[in-house]
Amino acid sequence: RSYQHTSSRGNEQRIRCAQCGCLVPRWKTFEVFRGFRITDPTILKQVDRRMLSFMQRKERVCPKCARFYHVVKRGKSERKKGAGTRFA
After folding, report:
1. Pairing with 80, which of 32, 38, 68, 87 sits 20 to 30 Å away (CA)?
2. Cross-strand pairs, 60
3. What is the pLDDT of residues 21-52, one digit of tens each?
């Protein structure tokens, strides 16, 4: 869950989040691969093997959506915060 953003890089491009559509700097986003697999053997014979790589696409999600859709874990302090106060 590290951003790996140590040195200054000037004005970086902003990317739309694949889930909510908000504009986020590219270095803050998390990569998610979306796609589907063909499990039916008859359809698999009809589809060209070279075209199977097109059925997977790379999307980028913002930190807020990454936490909500369980792409990454919440921070340690955030996890400890709500441990016993939920039903108080």
Report:
1. 32
2. 31
3. 999 999 899 999 988 877 888 888 888 877 77
